Fold:
Amino acid sequence: MNWRKALPFIASVVIIVALVWWAGTEGVLRVLRRTNVYYLIVAVLMYFAGIVTWALRWHVIIKGLGIEVRFRDTLAALFIGVLFNNITPGARGGGEAFRVYYLVKRSNGSYGRLFATVTADRILDLIPVMIMLVIAAIYVYSLGFTGLFAVILLLTLMLVGLTGLATLIITSERRVRRILYMIFNLLARLIPSKIKKHEEKFHNLVDTNIPHFTEGLRIVVRDKKTFLLSTFYSFLTWAFVVLRNYFVFVSLGYKIGLLAVVTVQMIATTVGIISVIPGGAGITEAVTSGVYVALGVTREMAVTSSILDRIISFWLPLILGTIVVTHLGLKPKED
Structure:
């Protein structure tokens, strides 16, 4: 076993155990025993509904670039992407290349154009997040939680700054090339024996696909139908995310306001994006539990709901993604 790779997951388990101890093991078990399975199933269905609308959003973007691909392949690629997002640092960050790799020979799209669809998908995903962060900030300020308001404001500014910087880079072919060459040269200095032999192939890939990438992004932005429909699916996806968490609370017999769920979900999402732990495992549970307690939820209820929600949104897709990879494989099919 590679202990360095396993360490983040071990750390996440330690954090979860510490949370249960903090909340009181007996209290957490008492809350779990009164779980309404039917409402918990509804929460699971909300998760799958969110995945389907996410896949529909990406599929609309793909079709907007004239790329032909079956929806079931788009959905399978998304599950594979979620799997690798959950085992690499940064929420929803590490799996994007695997999405492209899976679809490139299952469609008529090039690497560059498919990367453009993934990038557009990620940008459109952030529109409802930023809006809900503003709503969350107004909500906690109205309740008098100035400290929490400051945290949300800081996270919002960080997210806007990172998004703005990323947009500035990806909209310029010259800047994209410069960043890619900087990364390649850095890797070549660190591990020359493994990187140098791929230099010619790397240059060919960059020269061929970067123009497709920047052109694809421009097409998505200018196509009003694609932009509006995919944005609609973005809001629908996040509505299902909020409802998933809400029904977890309902399954535990606890009444909670939707605005409280929105607040916690947006803070956890933003922290997860910048987390160095794969998928934000452990960190997300700690953040959601802490914020729920700050909003007046009991410790045992906050921790139990956070763990159940993460079983649905992290561990379940981890298992499903592994099944998809095992059954379908990652290697592109030959024509």
Summary: Residues 24-328 form one domain.
